[in-house]
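In the previous chapter we treated chains in isolation. Here, by contrast, the input contains two separate entities that must be folded as one system, with a combined length of 743 residues.
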Amino acid sequence: MEKLILELVYQGRPSYHKLSKFPVSVGRAYDCDVVVSDITVSPKHLTILETEQGFEVCSTGDENGTVLNKAPLPENQCMPVSIPSTLELGDLRGRLIDPAMQVAPTQITPKGLGWFSFLSNPIWAAIFVVMTALVIITSKYISTPIQQQSLTYVSALLVPLLSMFVVAFIIAVVSRLTMHRWAFIPALSIAGLLFLIPLLFDHVGHFLAYVTTSSVVASILKNVTSFLLLPLLLTFYLKKVHYTHWVSATGIALLVTMPVSAFFATDLVQEMSNSSGFTPMPSYNRTLSAFDIRMKKTLEVDAFLAQSEIILEKKVEQLVILERD
Amino acid sequence: MLRYLLLLIVSGLLLNISQVTADTSSIYEEVESSVYQIRVINIETGKKVAIGSGFVVQREDILATNYHVVSEYVNDPDVFRLEYLSTDGKSGDLELLDLDVIHDLAVVKSSKPMGKPLEIAAVPDKGARLFSLGNPLDLGFSIVTGTNNGIMEQDQDGNILFSGNLNQGMSGGPTLDDSGNVVGINVAAQGNAIGFLVPANYLVTILKRLGNNGFEPIDNRFKQISEQLIANSEKDIERLASNNWGLTKIGKLQVPAALDKSMRCWDLSRTPKKDDLFRSFLTQCSNQNDTYLSKNLSVGAISYEYSWMDTQKLNPLRFYSRYEKMNFSFIESDVDKSDVTNFACHTGFTRIAKQDFKTTVCRRDYIKYEGLSDMLFSIALVGHKTQGAMFNLDVTGTRSQTALVLFKKMVGAFQWKS
């Protein structure tokens, strides 16, 4: 019957050694009771003893030393330890744990392929991919009011679809390396959403720009896709596929997407500095919509001009003050 | 007998030619000392940036020239100064007294007497001989003979058409009649022997105004310019608004045709192709009126365009994607940050000719010229699935209310014929 568990974390993954007979020697030498492969650990690094009061840890290697509960363990000395305790053998981290210690509750994986587990259900992945393809083809068809060959649409489709599969593949490979299992379907769902949502937001933004006669909603949606979409999708993926805790999932997602966000931030700053500078071009809401659904009512010309006169007088006054200063 | 008669005719011709030569040279001698080269000098480098001509008028210390000759000095008196150079090489400083940007005139003053003032006379009959003086291309003082072709009615703001070779550098010089009186001021040239003169009566107006003020320089030149531009724009727009425009058809819309004889209209529609899925038409009109303010700034332009687009083959989504791309408007000019503010715009929907239009009004103000604005109007038909119409109107160098009147009157005349 084991009395103590030694947990050692190699490359982020813990391994557990059940200790029942004492003393237990730990080190790189092959005659140790627990053989560790970390190169920063001494051949005979430490010994764990059982005493009447409990357990003691004795330092037997002096090369990189041992840290016990964040305090260095003096060379060739023994110290009583409470359980649980943390250990550092050179760069190798570990813990001494009571075998009776409670483990974290089980992460229940979704049973079967429910409709709403859209990350793991291949049908959803297929829907996202097909929808992206349809939206791309429709946009291309709508935006080119001339007769075109069907090959044009295929060529418009190839690059985004290929990129989508590359992104899915990269996500899947990273998962394989860290989790040692393939998760291609969830990776494809994430990549599908990553391409589909900006396209949909673009159309929704345009539609709402006409409805509200203002580009505010469109620019909010644009910034959401630039800055929030990728971190959100990754957080969701880490949580659902890697079972990472929400906080660490968010942290990892933010860290990983930092270069992309930095790129969009530079873009945004550039755009802001451009729009605050001088331009001879008038900037106004140019959107037109075949549906003609809008919040602004139709006014008589006189009423509209009277309204414009007051509004423009105020706006221009501010611009003039800005320039004459 | 016949021989004598022939001799008489020949000698008569010779006499006539010698008479002309005598006229030209005597006129030149008479007025030479009253005509000067006017130069704008960069204070720092002491080198000239612009040259023109000028002449003594009304008082011995007062010269008249073109506004465009001295515009650099008027706009940046801290950077440039104004100088005269006489035919015998004497030079000295000048200061601005008053100006008229609409007719491109400026009156400047010297601290010394400059010679005998030239007299001003009315424009003689069409066909009369005129003598134009100045310093073409900085080559030396010259006199050019030409013919008076009368006052232009529509374009060029009532300038005199002068058939003679005016050149750069002669701007601001006087054009004289047979008796040596000033009838016009050289202002512009266009191609072979086509020149334009400002009628001297506009100079009389400035001189009268100056006389009433004891020949004191104007306090605020930019305010003065701005008032002149606004008054001119109001006059122009009032004239346009009072005309009977007549209607012209574009698609299903009946719209005002040329607002005035001075408007030049062009069709700029794309040439239809066999496999087109939609039709589109575009016509554009603009006045020929540009008031020069500085090298890159002219105002007073009024231009408008109508466009129509429809389809029987495109679905509404595809049609609107194309229609939306046509929905833009801007004013062509070289203005920069130091001239105007950015545009401020207001967009809404209005009822014109019983149809709904997405309507935008934009305004930007001039920074130096208080009360002066550029106005841009743009309307686009909405609510029709496969038909689109646009109307853009720009007015530069105006008062915002004045341009609103024109826009209101124009869209008020729109009619929908289904």
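The two ends of chain B are 84 Å apart (CA to CA). Chain B touches chain A through 62 residues (CB under 8 Å). Compare these points with the single-chain example from earlier in the chapter.
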